[in-house]
UniProtKB/TrEMBL annotation:
GO CC term, one of those recorded: membrane
GO molecular function list: potassium ion transmembrane transporter activity
Protein keywords: Ion transport, Membrane, Potassium, Potassium transport, Transmembrane, Transmembrane helix, Transport
Gene Ontology biological process: potassium ion transport
Signal peptide from the UniProt entry: none
UniProt-recorded name of the protein: Potassium transporter
Family as reported in the entry's similarity comment: Belongs to the HAK/KUP transporter (TC 2.A.72.3) family.
Biological role: Potassium transporter.
Regions crossing the membrane: 66-87, 163-185, 231-253, 278-298, 310-333, 353-380, 401-425, 437-456, 463-485, 491-511
Length: 781
């Protein structure tokens, strides 16, 4: 079988650069983005006015309240989604990716801070590491600019690095909280249309069961993925936007054609002057009009800047403005509402089309909820890849559509929490208070991170960054304060969820960091390995021994621990480190860093497999093949020191080379005599024939190899045919004696519990148990 080399993101790089998309491609992506990005934002008219007038203010005959609310909605939609996200934040992409971790990874690369201290200079040579969009040219080396001053400040003070990480984790926790609350409020608000066909007493007993049934079905179907029904998402959202636009235009002309006057910011002043504290508290309901705005940035990786900008400015934004104006026009002529619960969206819908609109609204709410749930899966995957969340099972639901994943543990946890808040609150008011706080907190985090990106990555002045954070930060802080004041009325939910997830993330990250520091302090020197001689002082058996380690240099302690107790090892040793780098994707040809430990006759190699936070990890068989091919190409190309003295000392420990495609690995069950290599290529075949599987390397025709290279490749093939064994450390992490109470609780209780209940390393999930050997070690951190 010929092995086609390619990494997790290979399909991604086969498309043209996003900035060069044709208008036809941009319009197609804009159409598709309507179903993925804007489902949540487009369903906000279902509950904005209802939440705003729930308790804090009353709808009077002067219309000052409704006009003031409409003015706030219009300017909030204009300043936050349109000005902040569409025109500014979308430019801060990380090689096409967006979201909280995209901003954080940009800052990590430009300030050289990171999650674990395992960065290498070779990482900075990655093509995706260097790329920087949306900003000005980098200043000359050594120039004392604002960016260099901020960079030195971050690199010098570890407290600031921790605060930056903490800020990113807060935003992540709030996104997870939004994944619980948005499906609840969207579906519950959509089915609230049933209230108009029955009495208030009856609808309370109908809405909750119907909403819960829809939510259970939504989460139960997650493992099938959305690729089978995803093509329906865009038409559903477009139909919904068309409905609310037409209804809005009808209400404007039928009830109050002069409602456009409320778009003047003067009505915001009149509103606050009349309502005072009640008006300020009602801002917690008004901010719900921008729920889902963060999705424009978070889902940027699936589309392009231009497509998202086109979809929002030409379809979503005008549709929402018309919808809110239409509701305001209706309410401005209906001052006496039969009961408070009837001030929602459906009361402004003409009775003749109310039931069809109800059905479309439920479908749109499901689509919006689906996008939020998928986004929650995605950000947890990013956290896990960057050692900030316990390892979880990640299932890729589509082999064709990139980024569609399913995490069983998180899915059922979200469902339970979502049902709990739906049954517990039973009204959109408290659900809205909770959802609003989560939404505005994420936006505040984005604003803070963006101000640093403006200076560090775009090389703009500090004054511009301060203006950005003061202008948008003031708007969001106003809404945040209005949400926070409703702590006891539902806003405590996202805070409680964030605290829980923050504790989990911080405990896991702290334990992982301490474990890595222990590995660094207890690693074995290269001199110890060289002192063992070519046979390493032990019996060398057939096969490849793959030793998993977190170290990018040195010999892990588990190796010396193993050979001390069992003096036998494989003929080929590979120290494998799978590490995450602060980029979205690593190109397949840049995936592996390969080096040699000791002279050639030792047959000991180091291989570092680098993955971005959005990369898809291959299954074990494909990974094994890519790994062996990278080592074979390293041997063939003679990248290492010709004298074979690579990594003879700790100083030379980082002398590794990026190995791309070259040699192909073919494995087949046929008899060696029947196998023929492809035309235009040479073959090196193993002399071992009594095997179930025949292995051969196909090298380029132009390759000229000396006898030592051919002998080394021959030995690697024979070792591959004999089989591969995975040696992994089974660590028992304990706080060292003399540690404080808090550290003992964090390490001995918290981290130990998470480690025992999380998944193993991604590459080792499907490895047969017969090929795995665990070496137990006690880590006293």
């Amino acid at each position: 079988m010929d092995l086609e080399r390619g990494g997790a993101g290979a399909g991604r790089y086969s498309t043209p650069e996003k900035t060069k998309d044709s208008w036809r491609t941009a319009l197609t992506l804009a159409y598709q983005s309507l179903g993925v990005v804007y489902g949540d934002l487009s369903t906000s008219p279902l509950y904005v006015y209802k939440n705003t007038f729930a308790e804090d203010i009353e709808h009077s005959e002067t219309n000052e309240e409704i006009y003031g609310v409409l003015s706030f909605v219009f300017w909030t939609l204009t300043l936050v989604p349109l000005l902040k996200y569409v025109l500014i934040v979308l430019r801060a992409d990380d090689n096409g990716e967006g979201g909280t971790f995209a901003l954080y990874s940009l800052l990590c690369r430009h300030a050289r801070v990171g999650f674990l201290p395992n960065g290498q200079l070779a990482d900075e040579e990655l093509s995706t590491y260097k790329k920087m969009d949306g900003g000005g040219a980098a200043p000359p080396m050594g120039a004392d600019t604002a960016a260099s001053r901020v960079k030195r400040l971050l690199e010098k003070h570890h407290v600031l690095q921790r605060l930056l990480l903490l800020l990113a984790l807060i935003g992540t926790c709030m996104v997870i909280g939004d994944g619980v609350l948005t499906p609840a409020i969207s579906v519950f608000s959509a089915v609230s249309g049933l209230e108009l066909s029955m009495s208030e007493e009856q609808h309370k007993y109908v809405e909750v069961p119907v909403a819960c049934l829809i939510l259970v079905a939504l989460f139960a179907l997650q493992h099938y993925g959305t690729h089978r029904v995803g093509f329906l998402f865009a038409p559903i959202v477009i139909t919904w936007l068309l409905c609310i636009s037409v209804i809005g235009v009808y209400n404007i002309f039928h009830w109050n054609p002069h409602v456009y006057q409320a778009l003047s910011p003067y009505y915001m002043y009149k509103f606050l002057k009349k309502t005072q504290r009640g008006g300020w508290m009602s801002l917690g309901g008004i901010l719900l009009c921008i729920t889902g705005s963060e999705a424009m940035f978070a889902d940027l990786g699936h589309f392009s800047q231009l497509s998202i900008q086109i979809a929002f400015t030409s379809v979503v934004y005008p549709s929402l403005i018309l919808a809110y104006m239409g509701q305001a026009a209706y309410l401005s002529r209906h001052h006496i509402i039969e009961s408070d619960y009837r001030i929602g969206f459906y009361v402004s819908v003409p009775e003749q089309i109310r039931w069809p609109v109800l059905g479309i609204a439920i479908l749109a709410a499901v689509v919006g909820s689906q996008a939020v749930i998928t986004g929650t899966f995605s950000i947890i995957k990013q956290c896990s890849a960057l050692s900030c969340f316990p390892r979880v099972k990640i299932v890729h639901t589509s082999s064709k559509v990139h980024g569609q994943i399913y995490i069983p543990e998180i899915n059922w946890m979200l469902m339970i929490l979502c049902l709990a808040v739906t049954v517990g609150f039973r009204d959109t008011k408290r659900l809205g208070n909770a959802s609003g706080l989560a939404v505005i907190a994420v936006m505040l985090v984005t604003t803070c991170l963006m101000s640093l990106v403006i200076v560090l990555c775009w090389h703009r002045s500090i004054f511009l960054a301060v203006c950005f954070i003061l202008f948008f930060g003031a708007i969001e802080a106003l809404y945040f304060s209005a949400s926070l004041i409703k702590f006891l009325e539902g806003a405590w939910v996202p805070i409680a969820l964030s605290i829980i997830f923050m504790v989990i993330m911080c405990v896991w990250h702290y334990g992982t960091l301490k474990k890595y520091e222990f590995d660094i302090q207890n690693k074995v020197s290269i001199d110890w390995l060289l002192g063992l001689g070519p046979n390493l002082g032990i019996v060398r058996v057939r096969g490849i021994g793959l030793i998993h380690t977190e170290l990018v240099s040195g010999i892990p302690a588990i190796f010396s621990h193993f050979v001390t107790n069992l003096p036998a090892f494989h003929q080929v040793l590979v120290f494998l480190c799978i590490k995450s780098v602060p980029v979205a994707y690593v190109r397949p040809e840049e995936r592996f860093l390969v080096g040699r430990i000791g002279p050639k006759e030792y047959r000991v190699y180091r291989c570092i497999a680098r993955y971005g936070y959005h990369d898809v990890h291959k299954d074990d068989l494909e990974f094994e093949k890519d790994l062996v091919c990278s080592i074979a190409e390293f041997i063939r190309s003679g990248i290492s020191d010709p004298s074979g003295t690579a990594e003879r000392s700790e100083k030379d420990d980082n002398r590794m080379a990026v190995v791309g495609a070259g040699i192909r690995l073919c494995e087949e069950d046929a008899d060696p005599e029947d196998a023929a290599g492809p035309s235009g290529s040479k073959e090196i075949q193993s002399t071992v024939t009594a095997r179930k599987k025949k292995v051969r390397f196909v090298v380029p025709e132009s390759s000229d190899m000396d006898s030592s290279v051919r002998e080394e490749l021959q030995e690697l093939m024979e070792a591959r045919e004999a089989g591969m064994a995975f040696i992994m450390g089974h660590s028992d992490v304990r706080a060292k004696s003399g540690s404080g109470l808090i550290k003992r609780l964090v390490i001995d209780v918290g981290y130990d519990f998470l480690r025992r209940n999380c998944r193993g390393p991604t590459f080792a999930v499907s490895i047969p148990h017969a090929s795995t050997l665990e070496v137990g070690m006690v880590y006293n951190v």
